[in-house]
Amino acid sequence: MGAFVISKRFNDEYKFVFTSRKGKIIFTSLSYELNFECQEDIEKLKEDIVSTDFLKFKSSSGKFFFKLMFRGVHFATSRKYTTSLMLEKGIKEIVLYASKAEILDFSVDHFVFTD
């Protein structure tokens, strides 16, 4: 089962990635100013994964990637894949597991170990 992982960018905006069952990043979202916006979009995506479209591209270096379109809006961009088969496997992982994936929030500065 995959997971949505929320984190902060260097400019203090939030983003999330969807990771595969093996821990590889499949796609990265656009930026969000507030954490709750990020969480809301994840929940919307999980509830209505069938409304997603995957626009497939090939980069100038020959790598394959997709843009995830949710309800007609660009939502996220995938990592680069070496083959179109690997790209299809990434898409299949999203379709099968995104609705059941857990949300992990690593954007807050809570430390497990105290000094």
Overview of this structure, please?
- Helix content is 23%, strand content 36%.
- The chain is α+β, with helices and mostly antiparallel strands and 115 residues long.
- The chain has one domain: PH-domain like.
- The model has no long low-confidence stretch (mean pLDDT 91).
Order of helices and strands: EEEHEEEHE
CATH topology descriptor: PH-domain like
Strand fraction equals 35-45%
**Approximate helicity band:** 10-25%
Shape descriptor reads globular
Note the main attributes of this structure.
115 residues, alpha+beta, PH-domain like, seven-stranded mixed β-sheet
Entry summary:
With about 120 residues, the chain is of the alpha+beta class. The chain has helices at about 35-45, 85-95, and strands at about 5-10, 15-20, 25-30, 50-60, 65-70, 75-80, 100-105.
